[in-house]
Amino acid sequence: MALFKKKKELADYSDKAVPTSIGIIMDGNGRWAKNRHLPRSAGHRAGAKVFRTITRYCSDIGVKYLTVYAFSTENWRRPQDEVGALMRLFKEYLQEALDDFKDDSIVIHFIGDKSSFSEDLQKLMDDNEEISKDRDGMVLNIAMNYGSRDEIVRAVKSISEGVKNGDIDINSIDESMVSDHLYTAGQPDPDLIIRPSGEYRISNFMLWQSAYTEFVIMNKLWPDFKKEDLDEAIRLYNLRSRRFGGV
Ligand code: IPE
Ligand code: IPE
Ligand code: MG
Asked: Is 89 helix (H, G, I), strand (E, B) or coil?
């Protein structure tokens, strides 16, 4: 089975704007499992399936960049067995992506600090990036061990290094230089960020990039999220008036 299952039924997007770049905070797996008296890991497994469906759907409707928040820099605080289950799930999915890549157009890119993961997981991440880098479809950023504050600290360090060794003139530091030192360098900022599970917070996701992003909070747990919910989020996005500080 291909990693991102092909789906035929698409909503009619001909008269609506499909956001160029979407971010999704895939939240609510634990509560979904708890409601069913299942272990939290069962929620993560159900969430991973939804990730697959929604990623394919985004690519099919013409989204150019999709960033999914899979594991934050703070998620290591969870019990060891939950972290272990998540790592096993990541490995399974990334191995499957390698085995079934052939007819796929999606470019896979990881954002976050890979170095905290086991060597075999890091290799799977690198191999997925390498094997997909020349494709011409949607860019899928998978945020793993990602924290936006950590990302900004890294950018500051890297720019400071450049100043110290004379490669960067301090007066040339501007917003675009900072953007170019983030994991998302070269990509447009997200137009829309969706957070399922009803939480009204950003949880350290794309703080710099989301300065003018439209937020849609949905009262649905991620494992219950359907293509129709993505359609609804885009419908709400299309009702917004984006002003970027102008009038
Ligand atoms: C999101 O679901 C998945 C990860 C953070 C890895 P949660 O596990 O946070 O689910 P809830 O918020 O506890 O329901
Ligand atoms: C954000 O969800 C991280 C991911 C979805 C990967 P969390 O469940 O970790 O966020 P908080 O703790 O509710 O803010
Ligand atoms: Mg959560």
From this structure: helix
* Overall average pLDDT of the 139-167 stretch: 98
pLDDT digits (tens, 9 = 90+) for 214-241: 999 999 999 999 999 999 999 999 999 9
Residues with CB under 5 A from ligand 3 (ion): 27
Distance 79 CA to ligand 2 centre (A): 14
Catalytic-residue membership of 29: no
In angstroms, what CA-CA distances link 220 with 29, 31, 102, 228? 10, 10, 33, 12
Domains and CATH numbers, the chain: 21-147+190-238 (3.40.1180.10)
Please give the C-alpha separations between residue 9 and each of 95, 186, 226, 227, in angstroms, as whole numbers. 28, 32, 12, 10
